[in-house]
């Protein structure tokens, strides 16, 4: 089944996966200690599509923000300025709305803290943001309403590898986050690392 890009979050751990039929030549790269970015690979055709490159994970507030587009930055900025995670998600998702592409692609995002997690989606017909106390998944297609999801990795690297390997079609790359007493850790899984 093709569910597009998706986020899984729970307390302490979360992950984001790029799944794409249209732009498969992408990878997740590290930018410093606090940001993961989705970028085209050297093999990618040039495009002016604004939804191909973006920060997909950022350290912010008491945890990390993950998501499928440019909305990750304003969520992280609001969360860093002291907004509660739920409010940061609501404000940024509401302001940016769904993607204005041929498919009205929803924006999905999550905030992972040590003891809590929040998951949000803005679609053409709804804005949903929930606090979750167990792992939940939300995707751009088919699974575009948050639902409980079995997800038990204990590290950021394991989270990225786990979502990359899930049995949903067209895996491209993945990012994982883990929030612990020592801070936020990132993990990356790109196609060339299988």
Could you give a short account of the major beta sheet?
7 strands, antiparallel
Q: Count up the helices.
A: 3
CATH hierarchy: architecture: 4-Layer Sandwich
Level-1 CATH class name:
Alpha Beta
Q: Might you state the CATH topology name?
A: Glutamine Phosphoribosylpyrophosphate, subunit 1, domain 1
Tell me the radius of gyration. 15 Å
Secondary structure class reads: alpha+beta
| Average pLDDT taken over every residue | 95
Q: Which geometry do the CA atoms define?
A: globular
State the share of residues found in helices, binned by percent: 10-25%
What fraction of residues sit in β-strands?
Answer: 35-45%
**C-alpha end-to-end distance:** 21 Å
Quick one: how many beta strands?
13
**CATH homologous superfamily placement:** Inosine monophosphate cyclohydrolase-like
Uncertain runs with pLDDT below 50, 5 residues or more?
none
Number of domains: 1
- Going across the biggest sheet, name each strand in turn: 3-4-5-6-7-8-9
| Quaternary structure of the protein | single chain
Write down the secondary-structure element order.
Answer: EEEEEEHHEEEEEHEE
Family: Belongs to the archaeal IMP cyclohydrolase family.
Function: Catalyzes the cyclization of 5-formylamidoimidazole-4-carboxamide ribonucleotide to IMP.
EC number: 3.5.4.10
GO molecular function, one term: IMP cyclohydrolase activity
Structural write-up:
With 194 residues, this protein is of the alpha+beta class. Helices cover 16% and strands 42% of the residues. It has one domain: Glutamine Phosphoribosylpyrophosphate, subunit 1, domain 1 (4-Layer Sandwich), CATH 3.60.20.20. It has 3 helices and 13 strands; from the N terminus they run ββββββααβββββαββ. The strands form 2 sheets. The chain has a 7-stranded antiparallel beta sheet. The protein starts with 5 loop residues before the first strand and ends with a strand.
